[in-house]
Amino acid sequence: MLETTELDEELTWDEEAILNTIITHGIRTITPILTPSGIVYQGLEDFMRENELDWEIITKILDSMKKNGYFETKEQTRVIICPECGSSHVYSKFACPGCNSTELSRMEILEHSICGYTGMKKDFINNNRLICPKCNIKLSKNISRKNETSRKKSDYQRIGTVSECDSCALRFEKPTTIHICQQCSTNFAYSKARYETLYSYQIKEDIIQKLKDNNKLSILLIEDEATDAEIINAYLKKSKEKFLLEIVNTGKKGLEKIKDNLYDLILLDYHLPDMTGSEILEEIRAQNIMPHVIVLTGMDDREIAVKTMKLGASDYLIKSAELYKSLPELILKILKKNN
After folding, report:
1. Tell me, what CATH number does 322's domain have?
2. Residues 228 and 262 in one domain
3. For residue 147, is pLDDT > 60?
4. Around Cβ 161, how many Cβ atoms within 10 Å?
5. Which of 59, 71, 124, 191 is least crowded, fewest Cβ atoms below 10 Å from its Cβ?
6. Whole-number Å distance between alpha carbons of 156 and 289
7. Ramachandran region of residue 327, left (φ > 0), alpha (ψ -120 to 50) or beta?
8. Domain boundary at 183, 211, 239, which?
9. CB contact set of 284 (below 8 Å; sequence gap of 6+)
10. Region 16-21 average pLDDT
11. Between these two residues, 329 and 287, which has the higher pLDDT value?
12. C-beta separation of 174 from 75 below 8 A
């Protein structure tokens, strides 16, 4: 059975949906991850996408559930937030302390040990050779690192590096750091940046136990007719038994759900836009999983009924108003018979 909740604090729809996602996938810790497209919460990616929620809304929902005692938190990382648009899509670059240009060159400083001349490496380069600008002594046959390192220490030595701005020609030892927002293109210094701490959320053990004490039967309905799906959902909600229903409208989506989740029972419409019930049952068997399946169809076809039962279906039922009304009892009967 899928574990869900009827706990002390009343949950909003979003909170209950997140909790059901966590339980369905066996998630114990929700971890924020910084990606090129922004921040996502591991395990909730599909939930965020399907419900068109961003990380800020998800964070508020999780924080609310934390206050109500569902989660414990642990500091995970800190991110830079754009002061203009609030986006976390920010990257950092070194910049000139004089003009804030990010077009910088890093140069080595060399010292000629014989005459004592010190200067930029580029000033020593002459016709692809290193020549001291002061005494004109050749330091090496060419400027490759291999030949430079093979020279005796008495010729020259590297004594440091310096940055030079390609825009204003200012030279400096330490560049400044600026942040650039990929969302609104704002450039801002570290002093103007907002820094936000991201937390991982771990569901509490006592909550898990409470969830175990409040079991619901998990049902997947694979049905492309929206009206039929609504009717079935309405009757399951009216039932005294606790059902947790998920609905998809294609065979492909149904197989993806079955692969990732453990359902107590599947209600399978035989005629779907992309697959037949028989094809879905064959795919389920190929995955070495065989949940209880009730095949629903609008046609009384004995041949199909026999085929689906041979493929592992628990029952083959003809759609009708009376069937939908009695469906909760039929589901319980099948689960009780096979458990």
Report:
1. 3.40.50.2300
2. yes
3. no
4. 12
5. 191
6. 73
7. alpha
8. 211
9. 255, 258, 290, 291, 293, 312
10. 80
11. 329
12. no
Within a 13 Å sphere around the CA of 30, how many CA atoms are in the beta-carbon half? 31
Q: SS3 of 331, please? A: helix
What's the CA dihedral at 169, 172, 178, 180 to 10 degrees?
40
| 99-108, 151-160, 200-209, 308-317: the lowest-pLDDT one | 151-160
Q: Does residue 207 share a domain with residue 152? A: no
Q: Determine the distance from the C-alpha atom of residue 19 to the mean position of all C-alpha atoms in its chain, rounded to a whole number.
A: 17
**Residue 288 scores a pLDDT above 50:** yes
Q: How far apart are CA 183 and CA 84, in angstroms?
A: 10
Domain extent, residue 271, equals: 215-338
Whose tokens are 């750091």? That residue is: 177
Comparing C-alpha atoms, which of 147, 339, 272 is closest to residue 283? 272
What's the rounded Cα separation, in Å, for the pair 49 and 58? 11
Contacts by residues 120-129 (CB-CB < 8 Å, ≥ 24 positions apart) = 120/162, 124/156
Structurally, the chain folds into a number of domains equal to 3
Q: What is the pLDDT of residues 60-93, one digit of tens each?
A: 999 999 998 889 999 988 888 888 888 888 888 9
Q: Are residue 36 and residue 155 in the same domain, yes or no?
A: no
Beta-carbon neighbour count of residue 322 at 10 Å?
A: 9
Q: 226-238 and 321-338 helices cross at what angle (nearest 10)?
A: 60
Answer whether 91's CB lies under 8 Å from 179's CB.
yes
Instruction: Give rounded-to-5 percent helix, strand, coil for the chain.
Output: 35, 35, 35
How far apart, in whole angstroms, are the C-alpha atoms of residue 188 and residue 100?
10
60, 124: one domain: no
What's the half-sphere exposure (Cβ side, CA atoms, 13 Å) at 10?
A: 1
226 and 317 inside one domain: yes
d(C-alpha 319, C-alpha 196), whole Å: 54
Averaged pLDDT, 282-297: 88
When comparing pLDDT for 203 and 210, which is higher?
A: 203
Please identify which residue in the block is written with the tokens 């754009």. 82
What is the number of H-type helices and E-type strands within the chain? 11, 21
